[in-house]
Amino acid sequence: MKTKFSCIAAVVLASATLSGCALSPGQHLRHSDVSRDRQSDDGQLEMVTITPKLIAMDRASRAEHVLPADLFDYAPEEYKVGVGDVLYITVWDHPELTVPAGSQQQGNLAGRTVQSDGMLFYPYIGKVEAKGKTPTAIREEITRRLATYIESPQVDVSVFTYGSQRVWVTGAAERSSPIPLGTSPLTLADAISQTGLNAQQADLSGIRLSRDGVTYTINLETLANQYGGRQLFLKDGDSIFVPYLDRKEIFVVGEVGLPGAYSFRTGDVTLNQALGRARGLSQTTSKGDAVYVIRGSKDLQAEPSVVYQLEARSPTAFAVGSQFMLSPGDVVFVGAAGVTRWNRFVNQLLPFTAIINNAASASNDLDN
Questions:
Q1: Can you give the pTM of this predicted structure?
Q2: In this protein, which residues make up the domain named Polysaccharide export protein N-terminal (predicted)?
Q3: Domain 69-77+171-245 is in which class?
Q4: Is 244 helix (H, G, I), strand (E, B) or coil?
C-alpha cells in the first residue's frame, strides 16, 4: 500500500511541476531540508521568506508591465470601403435607379457589391472605383458623373453590409465570431460586449489582443482603473482572445478548512484571499509557521522552483499575506502541527489529482 501511495504522489507532484522537489514517504518540508533564502543541493528548489521587502520588489516588477502608448494613440480614420462591402445608393426622385426592380425588391438585393477588382457597377455611368474610398468620396463621384444624364442629382451613399474590415473575438465568449468594423469606431470593450461574456468561465484579467504580429495581455480592471477609462480602439485584423478561468487556477491544500482548486476572475489575488476562499487555517491541526506558496518553474534546468514561506504565528504575518500576490498555478500548502505523515498528505491531494493533471496539461498545451 505504501508503494502505491508513493507512485500516486509522484504523479500528483509532477503534474504540478514540482517534480524537482519530490519527497519520499514519511518526510515533510523542514528548514533542515532547504535552508531559508537558499537553494537546495540539486539547485531545483529555492526557499524564500515572505517579507515586506520581497512584496515591494514583486510589486515593482509587476508595475513594469504596462501597455504601450501607441495602443491608445491609435485613432481610427474615416471608414474606407473595401472588397465585399455592399453599398446602398439612393438617387432622390429617381426610384428606378435606387431600386431598379421596383418596390417589391428586397433591400439587400438592391445593394451594390464591391467586386474583387475594387469596382462596382451603376446604371448610366458604368463602373465606379470604390475600394479605398470613403462613402462621401463615392457619393461625390457618382453625383458628378450622373449630372451628365440627370439634372442636379441628389445622391446618398451608405454601407448596407460591411464585409471587408473585421476583428475576431474567440475564447470564453458566448458568440465567438468575427465582428465587422463600420463607420463608427469600435473599442475593445464594445467588441467583447457584442460577443457576450461567459461569466462563469471568462478571465477578464488576461485578455489577449493580437495586432500586427504582437500580442498584448490586457487586464480590463487595470484598463479601467490605471488608464483613466481611455478608449482602446480596434483596427482591421485585430484578434481578441478571452481566456478561460481554468488556466489560472490556484490550489490550496493541507491544513485548511476546504482544500481545493480555486479560480479568480481578477488579476490581483493575495495569499490571504486564497486562504480565505479555503476557509482559513485549521485552528487545531495547522502549523503557524508552515504556510508555503509553491511556485513551479517551467524549466528546472534554467531556474529553480521557488517555495515562499509565510510565518503565520503572529497576527502581523497576515498583514504581510494580504499584500503577497499569487500567480496562476501556485500551490498554497499549509503544514500540520507536529510531524506531517506522507500518506496523510497524499490523502489530502487525491481528490484533486484529476484537476491538477488537467491544469498541467492545459498549461503545457498553451506553452507549446
A1: 0.64
A2: 75-159
A3: alpha beta
A4: strand
